[in-house]
Design goal:
Layout: H1 5-22, E1 33-40, E2 46-53, E3 59-63, E4 68-75, E5 81-83, H2 91-96, E6 104-105, E7 111-112, E8 116-119, E9 122-125, E10 134-135, E11 148-153, E12 157-166, E13 177-186, E14 191-200, E15 204-205, E16 209-210, E17 213-214, E18 227-231, E19 235-239, E20 245-251, H3 266-270, E21 283-287, E22 296-303, E23 308-314, E24 318-322, E25 345-350, E26 365-366, E27 372-382
Antiparallel strand pairs: 1-2, 2-3, 3-4, 4-5, 6-16, 7-10, 8-9, 11-12, 12-13, 13-14, 14-27, 15-26, 17-25, 18-22, 19-20, 19-21, 21-24, 22-23, 23-27, 24-25
């Protein structure tokens, strides 16, 4: 008998999951990959919700809409688990939200000045917003798309591969772009990775990221007062009052952006000066120094109250560090708490904004025959009271 590739893939996954149950890969009779309905979009399209559970009890959850992460539960120093990713209560709220909660952003994360760029002598006109720039690819971003999903389980990890085909001219970008985003939870350690891969049939530009907001004390627990941030970056991208890069990469030394040692940023948020005002908070691109394509630890964040520690590793040359400056209490999480200003932080690993117009920045060009690849890992652990999460 000849089986379809889809049937064979489903059978293979079932066999792997059965093996995981036999060797302790799941708890009791529960599968380490649980899929359930999550509602129906306004278009009538049903959306599924996936929850991964590793051997230690950590969970990672996401939905097909926007390939959006909806939660990650990790233990504190007492063993109590809490979701550390700011989420929303239901599909309708995700569909109406403009905050891009933990979704995949593209085709180009960040700003592009004047909504245009030139590549190989050809100027591409994009869709401008009210301020005349393009942000996160423009309207109908990838966070509003339904991604195709394939679940997997292997000896060391479980997860899903999300695929999106962005056609030629989508958001006015040239080239049909095929994107694979893999969410991978390690079985034996509390860490997950986001693995990106993309191919194009025409020269184009590409900048992908995940727009997740974290609070290590637990989503909905309040501000960042108990957090200590360490970012292994000696430079940042200088921007104007619209957060558009000038092209200069300046030293963080001597500025409020210098977080090379564990720092309580709440005094800076309360009384912002210089590079933090406006918009009363961090919304800056930090530049790392590792060789291109090298997976390196670039940030360590500690919550002194719970003991949760988050280490972030990436192959990307920079990250946008953002302290939830736009939260205003209108959005409510599944915890029932409303998200106020500075109730969470985002660490969006990516290339620098406006890179297509800044020849000195690492290139975001992608050509036929090439494959874009990128990895970011979020590694959770616990720290003893008073211990330092140095990152350099």
């Amino acid at each position: 008998m000849i089986r379809s590739s889809t049937t064979m893939a489903a059978l293979a996954l079932a066999l792997v999951l059965a093996g995981a149950a036999a060797d302790g890969g799941c708890t009791g009779t529960h599968s380490p990959i649980l899929v359930r309905p999550f509602g129906v979009l306004k278009t009538g399209q049903p959306i599924e919700h996936v929850t991964l559970t590793n051997d230690r009890g950590m969970t990672l959850s996401y939905i097909d809409y926007g390939a959006t992460i909806t939660g990650a539960t990790v233990a504190d120093r007492a063993g109590k688990r809490a979701n550390v990713i700011l989420d929303l209560p239901d599909l309708a709220t995700y569909e109406s939200s403009t905050s891009k909660h933990a979704a995949i952003i593209g085709r180009f994360a960040g700003r592009i000045a004047n909504a245009r760029y030139t590549l190989d002598g050809k100027t591409v006109e994009l869709i401008p917003n009210a301020r005349g720039m393009t942000i996160h690819g423009g309207p109908d971003g990838y966070e509003k798309r339904v991604w195709k999903r394939r679940d997997f389980a292997d000896k060391g990890s479980i997860g899903s591969v999300y695929t999106l085909v962005s056609p030629d001219g989508d958001q006015r970008f040239p080239g049909t772009l095929t994107i694979d985003v893999t969410y991978r939870l390690q079985r034996a350690s509390d860490e997950f990775s986001i693995e990106y891969a993309a191919r194009t049939d025409k020269p184009t530009v590409l900048n992908l990221t995940n727009h997740g907001y974290f609070n290590l004390a637990g989503a909905g627990s309040g501000g960042l007062q108990t957090h200590r941030f360490c970012i292994a970056a000696e430079r940042y991208a200088v921007t104007d009052d619209q957060r558009l890069p000038s092209g200069e990469l300046a030293p963080v030394a001597g500025t409020p952006l210098d977080l090379r040692r564990p720092t309580d940023i709440t005094p800076l948020l309360a009384q912002p000066t210089g590079t933090l005002a406006p918009p009363r908070g961090f919304d800056h691109s930090y530049v790392f120094g590792q060789p291109p394509g090298t997976l390196a630890r670039v940030a360590v964040i500690d919550d002194t109250a719970s003991g949760r520690r988050l280490e972030i590793l990436t192959t990307e040359p920079s990250a946008q560090f953002y302290t939830g400056n736009g939260f205003n209490g209108k959005e409510r999480g599944s915890s029932g708490k409303h998200y106020e200003k500075h109730d969470g932080f985002a660490f969006e690993t990516q290339h620098l904004p406006d890179s297509p117009n800044q020849p000195s920045f690492p290139s975001t060009a992608l050509y036929p025959g090439q494959e874009f690849k990128s990895v970011t890992t979020f590694r959770f652990s616990t720290a003893k009271p008073g211990s330092s999460g140095a990152c350099m």
